[in-house]
Task: inverse folding
């Protein structure tokens, strides 16, 4: 008995100090030898959830729920039921989740006095309204749950309600107010006032919503804080996958594409280990890197896997259709996504919507998207929104045959993207600036802009964009295969597209040995020594198409 008491004390201390694996081992040992007190069963469930043992976590919390009922503590049983519903909802088990919420509501209704669980069961109700396109209704219900939290001084409930209120406010169009509410919720998290699971929920949701709101500064700041929080809990699985997905997005934006791919793959692994909510971000962010580097088939598969989460892989999937040359399909996909989603997500899709409408030849629709984006940029004042707006407006002005008006707008976009440290978009603006200069008869400035954009794309590894920039530097139709045979030219194009020898062999129905011999011949004929040099040669000579 003395040993069990000592183990229990060690387990509680490890729990308080965020040593989850140690807490798990101590609690399990005590539970096996003599059984855990009910409150410690709740703690065991929490640590099991955090280290990725989702099924065991649900089992432990179910036991705690039942034991509370046996002793007549209905309020505590209802609290366990509410969290069981949320655990299962976050893990994608919606039917079981709804069952637990229904049971919890019945228990709450049976109580003579109100309790905090009454507010907890309102949170999924409000979330349902939010995701079904009723942010005004969600705002009202989140207000009710926050009032209950304040009545009982339940900091977890108060902060979760603030988070939901911020999301609803953002979806209703008030970006600044929504961001202020996120900051308020984060105060309690960073002060260590909340339980670990609500803390992680708020961290991850706030970072994601900052990206939706074009607030790159806040997204970077809170991602760093989330990274630090996860780093202090090295044995934690829950939330760490989502953290890796958010890191992947920031790496991608800042041009560190190898690091972005690595973080996205780490998110995928953690998703499989218990952080279900990382499923979308892990696959979507890898798909984005693959699309930008020209690995279009791989990107297609990544977006498909991201879609298994229940979230639409947009705008990446629409832009993939565009990269494959199917502008009309891209237009149908992005229009469907933009029309069917909430206001906050629609705003996030506007830059791609404007780009695709232009590529599909619908200048009027592109102008409407650019004007809508300009309204967003004015309302929120975020530099990233302003950069995206200026870029879209400049591209549309070029299509409207107004290069003189486009020039200052595109220069503003280029400056903003550079200040934000987003090199890919800065390079795209530089190429558009070249088109504007050329349309005004300034061939010298145009050549400088095209060359600078091309160099940036090559450095990033953005094969399709580099090919586009290279094509802008050549007179139409000028391409020279030099000493290469038609088959060697086919191989060079596939090398420039970033494909491995095995993939090239499959595409051309050759053996890998034959592909390797062709590549050796290409190197010899062109005086090259690496795939990177061959890729650069292909772009510079108009052979990468």
Result:
């Amino acid at each position: 008995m003395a040993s069990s008491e000592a183990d229990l004390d060690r387990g509680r201390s490890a729990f308080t100090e965020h040593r989850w694996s140690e807490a798990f081992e101590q609690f399990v040992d005590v539970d096996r030898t003599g059984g855990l007190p009910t409150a410690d069963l709740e703690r065991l469930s929490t640590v099991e959830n955090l280290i990725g043992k989702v099924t065991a976590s649900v089992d432990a919390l179910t036991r705690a729920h039942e034991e509370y009922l046996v002793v007549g503590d209905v309020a505590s049983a209802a609290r366990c039921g509410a969290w069981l519903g949320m655990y299962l909802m976050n893990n994608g088990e919606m039917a079981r989740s709804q069952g637990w919420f229904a049971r919890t509501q019945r228990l709450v209704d049976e109580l003579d006095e109100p309790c905090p669980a009454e507010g907890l069961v309102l949170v999924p109700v409000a979330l349902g309204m939010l995701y079904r396109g009723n942010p005004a209704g969600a705002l009202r219900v989140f207000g009710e749950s926050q009032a209950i939290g304040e009545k009982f001084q339940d900091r977890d409930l108060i902060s979760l309600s603030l988070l939901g209120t911020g999301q609803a406010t953002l979806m209703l169009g008030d970006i600044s107010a929504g961001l202020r509410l996120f900051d308020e919720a984060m105060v309690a998290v960073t002060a260590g006032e909340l339980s670990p699971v609500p803390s992680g929920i708020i961290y991850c949701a706030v970072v994601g919503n900052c990206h939706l709101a074009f607030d790159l500064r806040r997204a970077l700041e809170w991602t760093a804080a989330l990274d630090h929080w996860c780093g202090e809990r090295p044995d934690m699985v829950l939330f760490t996958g989502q953290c890796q997905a958010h890191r992947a997005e920031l790496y991608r934006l800042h041009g560190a594409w190898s690091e972005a791919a690595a973080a996205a793959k780490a998110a995928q692994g953690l998703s499989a280990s218990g952080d279900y909510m990382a499923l979308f971000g892990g696959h979507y962010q890898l798909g984005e890197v693959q699309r930008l580097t020209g690995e279009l088939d791989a990107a297609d598969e990544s977006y498909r896997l991201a879609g298994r989460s229940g979230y639409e892989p947009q705008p990446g999937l629409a832009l993939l259709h565009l990269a494959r040359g199917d502008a009309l399909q891209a237009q149908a996909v992005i229009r469907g996504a933009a029309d069917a989603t909430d206001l906050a997500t629609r705003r996030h899709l506007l830059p791609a919507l404007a780009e695709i409408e232009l590529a599909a030849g619908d200048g009027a629709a592109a102008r409407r998207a650019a004007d809508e984006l300009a309204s967003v940029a004015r309302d929120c004042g975020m530099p990233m929104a302003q950069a995206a707006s200026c870029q879209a407006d400049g591209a549309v002005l070029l299509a409207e045959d107004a290069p003189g008006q486009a020039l200052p707008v595109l220069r503003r976009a280029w400056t903003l993207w550079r200040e934000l440290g987003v090199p890919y978009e800065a390079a795209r603006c530089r190429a558009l600036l070249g088109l504007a200069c050329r349309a005004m008869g300034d061939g010298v400035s145009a050549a400088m802009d095209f060359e600078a954009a091309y160099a940036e794309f090559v450095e990033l590894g953005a094969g399709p964009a580099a090919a586009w920039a290279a094509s802008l530097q050549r007179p139409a139709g000028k391409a020279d295969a030099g000493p290469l045979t038609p088959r060697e030219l086919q191989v060079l194009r596939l090398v420039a597209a970033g494909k491995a020898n095995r993939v090239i062999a499959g595409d051309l129905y050759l053996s890998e040995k034959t592909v390797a011999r062709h590549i050796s011949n290409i190197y010899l004929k062109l005086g090259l020594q690496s795939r990177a040099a061959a890729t650069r040669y292909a772009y510079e000579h108009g052979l990468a198409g």
User: Anything to note?
Assistant: The chain has three domains: 2-247, 340-473, 486-540. The longest helix spans residues 363-380. The CA atoms of residues 72 and 289 lie 55 Å apart. The mean pLDDT is 93.
